[in-house]
Amino acid sequence: xxxxxxxxxxxxxxxxxxxxxxxxxxxxxxxxxxxxxxxxxxxxxxxxxxxxxxxxxxxxxxxxxxxxxxxxxxxxxxxxxxxxxxxxxxxxxxxxxxxxxxxxxxxxxxxxxxxxxxxxxxxxxxxxxxxxxxxxxxxxxxxxxxxxxxxxxxxxxxxxxxxxxxxxxxxxxxxxxxxxxxxxxxxxxxxxxxxxxxxxxxxxxxxxxxxxxxxxxxxxxxxxxxxxxxxxxxxxxxxxxxxxxxxxxxxxxxxxxxxxxxxxxxxxxxxxxxxxxxxxxxxxxxxxxxxxxxxxxxxx
Length: 300
What we know:
Elements: H1 14-23, E1 29-37, E2 40-47, H2 55-68, E3 76-81, E4 89-94, E5 99-100, H3 104-116, E6 123-128, E7 131-138, E8 141-147, E9 150-156, E10 159-163, E11 167-172, H4 175-178, H5 183-191, H6 194-199, E12 207-214, E13 217-224, E14 229-231, H7 235-247, E15 255-259, E16 262-269, E17 272-278, E18 280-283, H8 288-299
Helix pairs in contact: 1-2
């Protein structure tokens, strides 16, 4: 995937997406952008009001936005309320409308966006449905504190489970096996295993990560609920995989994690885990005019 920073706006039909969301009842859109975190494509919709829209409106709006942007697959839609009484507030839905309490790459993309909007300077706090999260922005590189893994279970020597705002099954495989796995097929089989998901306490399904230890760190491929396919990178999946790999003695933290979309870093901060890596705009950079003017001045 080509990440375009200049020009900062590409023809991804962002305006059409916003219009589609308005048709299903989403009001007060101030700005929209499409970003990516290691290839995980996130639409950020900034909203003017202080009050959060009803869940059913956000569900319909997420589907409308993801459907309207056709030149790249939008994996999720993040609704951003910078004037919310609780602080900088995010609500995340997958492309099919599924609500998630957390999205690691979504949080990283939002932190980058909020910094470019002048809403945070270097670091700040974002209020999510999984609690308050500290974020740190250094240019394109964004680190977020996702907290501790919860509901940790060892199902088998090579199969573990953890919850970090998203339910994650992690299957450890050999490094030579990881590239041969049919992630869409095998991931769907486990994601829709009703007995397994019920046993784990998440009957509506779990994300499925296939992880392998390799020289220099860990490699992870993820099947995501709500996208119903393999994605280029799942931030919470990377974090869960790294945490469980460390817990089972496979790696030590901090660790570099390779995904189809690139490298991320997972570190420990006390009892919390942090996730760090690059972000980029595909459309709707909030400082588009400033960047264009700066480019023009540099050419003079």
